[in-house]
Amino acid sequence: MLPTLCRDCLTPINTGADVCATCGSTRFVRHAELDEPSSNNSKQTAQSVLSAISSADELLADIINTPGVGVLVHRDNKILFANKTFTDMNRMSEEEIEDGTLSARIIETRRLEADVYSATTVQVANDLSVEGEFEAIVERTDGSRYWVKINTKNITWQGKPARLNISSSIDMRIRIEEELIATQAQLKQANQAKSEFLAQMSHELRTPLNAIIGFSELMSSGIGGEVAENHIEYLRDINQSGLHLLSLIIDVLDLSKIEAGKLELYEENFNLGDEIRRGLVFVREQARNSKIRIFEDFQDDCPDIHGDRRLVLQIVVNLLTNAIKYNVEDGEMRIDGGISETGCPWFSVADTGVGIAEDEIENVLNPYSRTGDQDSTEGTGLGLLLVSKMAELHDADVALTSTLGVGTSVCVTFPADRLAAS
Hints:
This protein starts with a strand and ends in a 9-residue tail after the last strand. The chain is built from eleven helices and 15 strands. The chain has helices at residues 31-34, 40-64, 84-89, 94-99, 121-126, 171-200, 202-221, 229-260, 272-289, 309-325, 383-393, and strands at 5-6, 28-29, 70-75, 78-82, 105-110, 132-139, 145-157, 160-169, 267-271, 293-296, 304-308, 332-339, 345-351, 397-403, 407-413. The protein is of the alpha+beta class. The longest helix is centred in the middle third of the chain and has 32 residues, at 229-260. The protein is elongated. Strand 3 and strand 4 form a beta hairpin. The chain has four domains: 5-64, no CATH class; 70-169, Beta-Lactamase, CATH 3.30.450; 175-260, Orthogonal Bundle (Helix Hairpins); 267-418, Histidine kinase-like ATPase, C-terminal domain (Heat Shock Protein 90), CATH 3.30.565.10. Helix content is 41%, strand content 23%. Helix 6 (171-200) packs across helix 8 (229-260) and helix 7 packs antiparallel against helix 8.
């Protein structure tokens, strides 16, 4: 004789019951439909039902016993059902399992969509107004703790409201996160200390170099007395080497000051075109020696802007110097600038040099980084990075485009509010 079954969940129904204890349904397959089938159709129906029950049981067992996933059904702090993964995660003894009291305690939660979760299992578990996913620290009865991810949902169990918790341990992930955070903090502190040290060394490094440069110029001019011709050449080498070393130190110190937050802006109104022309004065001789032709396309009415004149000039000089350094013999350099249609001051420097491969463009903004053919070029590799950092201090945008073997173009666009007031 076949049992009466719930039509929705296929659970056997106790005699006399009006409601399915599992899902609360009132739709049954009655004895009359299944008992002693009188036709092939009714026999097939009964067999299909039994087969479905067997398949459902197997599927449910597979789901419940999924490795690493704890399943708990509870009501009023009492365990109604718990799979082995849940009891193992909470190190529950046989006595605790038999007693059925939910003894593990949630002591901290995070990443909650609402603040109604409390610090105790009873309140979190039994507040039927709360559903969703959260992460928590659970304290076991032996005092040990672990991080767990819990998804809680209201269900009906044997005709009464209950709570379903699906949980998985996230101890390993949390430990890795904490180690990464600690490492990042240490790296940040070390980088800050390095930047502060270099920024404080500015005077100590520059003073002796300035003396070397000054005295070498004085001696080579003959003001301090007659100097042999071959000695003048040596003095010029000393002077040029000192200037080169000073420029490298200034780059490193400027970057260190920016990273340490100690580079202050001394803002004033000045003409962007004038600073571009001043920058060209610094590099014309270098361009002539490298046989680089310069084309000046920037507007005569380049706008006045408000910013740090020295830093803007440094941006210009760095871009012009790079355009010469990484150009080819008999190459070209083009300088353009003005006001965009959106009212933003801008200028750009383009060259016909070696260019940068697309997959290396991001690297040029890394400290001391070189790409491709740039490895053999003198300098610190800080030019573009300093341009980016100094532009950022002015809320300006730096756009770099490059094609390997064709050339590179860098455009610096200042926000409209950097236009000097009339």
